[in-house]
Design a protein that fits this description.
By secondary structure, this protein is an alpha/beta fold. The chain folds into 2 domains: about 100 residues, no CATH class; about 220 residues, Nucleotidyltransferase, domain 5, CATH 3.30.420.10. It is built from 14 helices and 12 strands. Helix 5 crosses helix 12 and helix 9 packs across helix 13. It starts with a strand and ends with a helix.
């Protein structure tokens, strides 16, 4: 998945696209962008730059456009004749250091500025929360034991307010989800987190249905939009440049075991940081989707509006979704 940026976005959003492109121009011993294109497209319509057998940048030529892909930044830029001239000037200014970058903002800063200005502090006029749970690993979702939970709400001070929920408080918080008129946001919550919470309370399918019908599931949304099964860490890293604090489910399982064996708070705190970071990562991914209203994958741009976002993210049809929810959640 990529961010398809205009040149204006390349200039205004903090990134290293121009620097990475210029580094490749230097490899080809070209100062001018036009000389660079002339050289790399002399015999081929595609050129790839690699580091240790991994593609870091690619340039492709079609009948009407040139397509530049920065694999490090997950940014794609499409150039027509006019934008080629504009990019040529941007690089000239970059080389002679006339164009300073101090006004650039990261995607996270852009999204949080909007959040602080009360943009997207509701969804369709309703409040929402973003949550994540951690569980034991089990082959059967009904046997997955709830460990801990973090939830995030838009607070009155224009900040993200977090709430920690322990095993002892699970039932009261599940009841809170059932009672309140809000949207419940997560990544794969319809098929994993919601049922795990209900099963751990020994409650019924009716309770689960009440929670599911107000859920905004970003995994379901992206699956329905793109037809792909996309891991949270890959999507968030590509779109908002935030990733998990631990690399695998085995790491957080080890942390929990260490805490259970020693009762040392440092293991629990690191586990809580992991869960809380997942919530922030998902919240920013949601804000990204609401802000840009498009994603780009496999050469195709997928656009959507607010109505599409709500409709696709609340589907309970299992077509194209994972066969094994427990296995899938470990990947997310």
């Amino acid at each position: 998945m990529y961010k398809r940026f205009s040149l204006e976005e390349v200039k205004s959003i903090q990134n290293t696209f121009i620097q990475n492109l210029y580094n490749n121009m230097k490899k080809e011993r070209c100062i001018s962008l036009f000389d660079f294109f002339k050289k790399i497209f002399k015999d081929w319509s595609d050129t790839y730059y690699c580091n240790r057998n991994e593609v870091t940048f690619s340039c492709s030529k079609t009948e009407n456009n040139i397509i530049l892909r920065d694999e490090k930044e997950k940014i794609e830029v499409i150039l027509d004749e006019e934008s080629k001239k504009e990019l040529h000037n941007i690089i000239k200014n970059f080389i002679i250091k006339k164009e300073k970058q101090f006004w650039q903002k990261t995607i996270e800063q852009i999204l949080m500025d909007e959040f602080s200005s009360w943009w997207f502090n509701t969804i369709d006029g309703k409040p929402y929360m973003v949550y994540d749970i951690e569980t034991t690993i089990s082959d059967d979702i009904k046997n997955a034991k709830f460990l801990l939970w973090y939830a995030m709400y838009p607070a009155e001070n224009n900040k993200m307010e977090y709430e920690y929920i322990s095993q002892e408080n699970l039932a009261s918080f599940v009841q809170k989800m059932i009672d309140f008129d809000w949207y419940i946001v997560w990544y794969n919550n319809i098929w994993f987190d919601n049922p795990v919470c209900v099963y751990n309370c020994s409650w019924t399918q009716e309770h689960l249905n009440e929670i599911n019908k107000k859920s905004v599931d970003l995994y379901v949304f992206l699956n329905k939009l793109t037809g792909k099964r996309l891991w949270l860490n890959k999507v968030a890293t590509a779109l908002v440049w935030i990733q998990k604090t631990l690399e695998s489910g085995a790491e957080w399982e080890t942390l929990w075991k260490q805490y259970q064996e020693t009762w040392e708070q440092k293991f629990l705190e690191e586990f809580k940081i992991y869960c809380k970071n997942d919530v922030r990562m998902t919240a920013l991914l949601m804000l990204y989707l609401l802000h840009f209203k498009k994603v780009f994958i496999e050469w195709e741009e997928k656009k959507f509006d607010d109505e599409d976002f709500l409709k696709l993210s609340n589907s309970t049809e299992k077509e194209n979704l994972q066969e094994n929810t427990q296995q899938a959640t470990a990947l997310f």
